């Protein structure tokens, strides 16, 4: 059962409430005695009647006073039962209030937890949105450059061109080396030919000198 919170009152208020509950000054008719006071008066009247009956020896007044006192007691007990029923109803209402208050507190806590969860979801959604925006910015930046397949194809084409140029360079180098060898051979042949021509010229000059000397000798002999 939920705990019922007590209402704080000061000493004067507590004394006033206690007095009103005991004397019923709040419910008694104007000018009428409170139940406790009436019960006390009936009891005093009964005691006085007993004393008078003891003196007179009749007993009728004492019996009437006794019946009046018993009726007042029964009425007082009836009122007390009614007050207990009211108090029990008030206690049940307080319990219901405490239960309803606990339920409201539970709903408040649940609402707070739900708000905290929604806040967490909102933060997550904001983070996801930020990531998407960053991804979109990177995607736009990447679209400014050639695609990977295009870059790969371009690299393959460049590699093929480089290989072809290397092949052509090797072929050109081979041709150049061959031309160098052929030119060196040609120079060697030219040098040999020049040597042979020089030897032939020298031989022809020697022959011409010999003929000139022979002709000179023949002329002197004549």
Automatic annotation (TrEMBL):
Family note: Belongs to the THOC7 family.
GO cellular component terms, A-Z: THO complex part of transcription export complex
Keyword Coiled coil: yes
Example GO BP: mRNA processing
InterPro entries: THOC7/Mft1
Pfam families the UniProt entry points to: THOC7
Keywords for this protein: Coiled coil, Nucleus
Protein name: THO complex subunit 7
Lineage of the organism: Eukaryota, Viridiplantae, Chlorophyta, Mamiellophyceae, Mamiellales
Coiled coil: 108-218
Location within or outside the cell: Nucleus
